[in-house]
Amino acid sequence: MRGISQAPFGPVSAINFRLRLDKMELLSLYYDITDMGLSKKTFFSTRENRIADLAKALAHPARVAILEYLSSQNTCMCGDIVDRIPLSQATVSQHLAELKRVGLITGEIEGPRVCYCINQSAWNEAKVLLSQFLTDVDKCC
Q: How many CB atoms lie within 10 A of CB 30?
């Protein structure tokens, strides 16, 4: 045993290499570890994890700008988002992916483009959860 080995994403003990994990399990394990230490998400309630996910998604000004732009439109937007946000196509796509991951937006494929809309049910859930959380915290002191 050599102790610590270097994996593509950082040090991993040699024992872990003996486990047979498929690619998706390994990626899931990697992201659980890097997101919150050793996946301590299980110590918190579903509500607390959901609020944290929403807060993380709203924690970047580009994502806030994207949500403001989408909410100001009466239709789904295809491609116009990149023209409105002063970032590269790849960066805007990453921000859209994060917003879609938490469910705040939906993306539908229309021909060669993806059209994005606010997911109204998730948006309403976010309003309720964040409002309750901010109100509860305000009562504490």
A: 15
